[in-house]
Fold:
Amino acid sequence: SPEVRLNLRLIPYSEDMWLVVARDVTKMMRLEQVRRDFVANVSHELRTPLTVVHGYLDMLEPDDQPEWAPMLREMQRQSQRMTRLVEDLLTLSRLEAQEGVEDATVAMEPMLSTLRREAEALSQGRHRVVVEDAAGVDLAGSTRELHSAFSNLVSNAVRYTPAGGTITIRFAREGGGAVLQVADTGYGIPAQHLPRLTERFYRVSTSRSRESGGTGLGLAIVKHVLNLHHARLGIESEVGRGSTFSCHFGAERIQPRQAPPGAAP
Ligand code: ADP
Structure:
């Protein structure tokens, strides 16, 4: 039987009475599903041709036509960007289709080492990278999805911080829960942009974001991953001084840290 989805609202009417307003959102949700499927299918179909173009472009060496070199480099750069875009769209579709996440142990020590390595690789020595691991606990959730969220924050921090700046990745306890923060000393974000930052393709400065090689989907992915973990994203930023992105995890996500295999008891 066709399922009907209702959105319910309770409105106080008198001292002991409430009005119930039920809105039928079945059609809206069906349209949303069609949109999601469409994006997922298009992204999937684009993947193979892109891989082929990208692969052959990487093999071309214009030895006899040196004037082609800059054009070829630009084509490689753009095809790389398209590949990243398709990958991010597929990630978002996967996240949107998920209702919850597994509750596996997310080992935070290796996670933080991976994030450090990623920051250093992206920065190529242009920034100082600091990692502070003060929490001494692990998280419960999906390692794959949390890694993609944290790594998006790290790549933003590197891309929106001029050379000489510092990127700090901090994991600490916070009340009964924990917080993972990625702080930078970069360009910062004007306050009026903060509420819309996690929307798909929302950008503060289109030219800077394009140049930095972003897809415009990074923070949308972060928000989805955190929602799936019932975690909250906090953003603090000051223009010219830098930004701090904080992922707040509740007490139910905390797990005692496992000793690494082979460690002395
Ligand atoms: P993009 O791929 O464009 O970086 P994101 O969704 O990751 O897309 O980020 C959205 C926008 O938020 C960016 O275009 C950029 O303007 C801004 N932004 C994100 N992270 C930072 C940061 N650490 N410092 C300054 N601006 C940032």
